[in-house]
Amino acid sequence: MNEWAAEDLEGEDMEYVEWAGEYQFYVKLNERLRVLEGIENISS
After folding, report:
1. How much is the pLDDT for 5?
2. What's the whole-model pTM score?
3. What is the per-residue burial (b if ≥16 Cβ within 10 Å, else e) of 7-33?
């Protein structure tokens, strides 16, 4: 992510903005998945 710039992508600014938004969405989903995977189901 840090190595890319709008000029590196075809379509430039708009494509970069879309890609960056999708990447951030992916990162947040993975963080939530790790939290959910860390939850233990404890039944009595």
Report:
1. 60
2. 0.60
3. eebeeeeeebeebeeeeeeeeeeeeee
Q: Spell out the domain ranges in the chain.
A: 6-37
Dist. CA 39–CA 34, nearest whole Å: 9
Distance of alpha carbon 16 from alpha carbon 14, whole angstroms? 5
Question: Is residue 24 pLDDT above 80, yes or no?
Answer: yes
Is residue 44's pLDDT more than 70?
no
pLDDT in the model for residue 28: 96
Q: How far is residue 1's CA from residue 4's CA, in Å, rounded to a whole number?
A: 6
Are the CB atoms for 17 and 5 separated by under 8 Å?
no
